[in-house]
Amino acid sequence: MKTRNFFIVSLLGAILLSACSEKKVEFSEKDAFAYITVLDESGNPVGGAPVLIYDEKGYEAFQKDRTAPALGGALTLPDGKVKYRLPYQKWFASGSRVVTFVVMQEDDPDNYRIWTVRRTIRTAQKVQIDFKLDKDLKTVTGTPLDIFDENNGRTLFGNAVYLSASQYLMGANRYSFVDAGVVSDLNAFGELKLDGLSDKMAVQPQHGYFVYKDISLREFPSGSWGVSIAAECVNMYVSDWLYRNGKVVGITVQYSVYQPANPGLPAWDTVYDTKLSDERGVTIPLPTKFGACECVSADNKSLQFSFGEDHVTIRVMSPTIGKEYRFYIRSGVYYTEAKLRVVA
Predict the structure, then answer these.
(1) Among positive and negative, which fits the CA dihedral 158, 163, 168, 170?
(2) Burial of 28 (0-12, 13-18, 19+ CB in 10 A)
């Protein structure tokens, strides 16, 4: 049976949309935190798993009607974990609460599975919530995350990216950013962009940002940049500011991690063999979607490139039997790395 999660995705989407519409999300030292982990039946992390969070009355309603709205919701990160904040004013103004965390999988209206964890939680408490699923769970994309600035906890994204006190994304010499402009959500980013690449970027709500690891970027002789087709890239959508005592202390984002689409370049780390009798070279088809391609050897001297309309011929200038000559090909904002090996 094909798994469908329409209800759970729709309900969680409504929660997130509602949260994003709030203009001020107050942060307090009295807030509690739930550290949630979701593992599959083999003990592997389940990224993108929706977790619904109910108070006492909400869970009573849920037991009678599984479409009952939750008071909160979160999606696990790729490592199967997520840190969820339970604001004091929303949850604990009248004292400790019994909080129920729910993961639900629905195959159809009459076939569904529910996993629950219940905890009595008090003000400022930190609790661990662990789910071990005994069935595969189809996940959704777009992971929410609160990023507090360097004066208010300094949340690290990718163990490096942080938000400065003046609300700039900072790459910490490991990441760079491109502003995608105003977008409606993670599905509205379009093609990758490298124009305006910077390791420091001012953020604005309702803007999208392309996030790149610096080691995945290469500048070509023309001055154009390319991102490796073997890299992991991030689309980050800033949905709103985070506030404390009326002051901005961070941002709420949604993000997705993915590998760039290959526009038709050779696969990463492809090795081409050439013989001395074959004029010490090979001809490689090239994509034409983004116009002319650009090639360069790793040492800028060992290889000669001759371009046709839809191909490039690469020759070794002074070949050595058994040696591999590394080169790079760029098409638009994408590039690949390959090798030319001289064989007997």
Answers:
(1) negative
(2) middle
Which of helix, strand or coil describes residue 252?
A: strand
Amino acid at the residue 216: S
Of 17, 52, 219, residue with least CA distance to 129: 52
Closest CA to 70 of 93, 49, 52: 52
Q: For 63, phi and psi rounded to 5 degrees?
A: -65, -25
Q: Whole-angstrom Cα distance, residue 18 to residue 25? A: 12
Q: How buried is residue 2: exposed, middle or buried, by Cβ count under 10 Å (0-12/13-18/19+)?
A: exposed
Cα distance between the two ends of the chain = 55
pLDDT of res. 1: 28
pTM of whole model > 0.70? no
Which element (helix H / strand E) includes 342? strand 334-343
Q: Are 259 and 232 in contact (CB under 8 A)?
A: yes
Mean model confidence pLDDT for the chain: 87
Residues 97, 88: Cα–Cα separation, whole Å: 11
178-183, long-range: CB < 8 A, 24+ apart: 178/209, 178/210, 178/212, 179/207, 179/208, 179/209, 180/207, 180/208, 180/209, 180/210, 180/235, 181/207, 181/208, 182/206, 182/207, 182/208, 183/207, 183/208, 183/237
Helices (H), strands (E): how many in the chain? 3, 24
Residue 344 CB burial class (10 angstroms; 0-12, 13-18, ≥19): exposed
**What is the per-residue pLDDT across 60-74, written as a single tens digit (0 to 9) for each?**
999 888 888 888 888
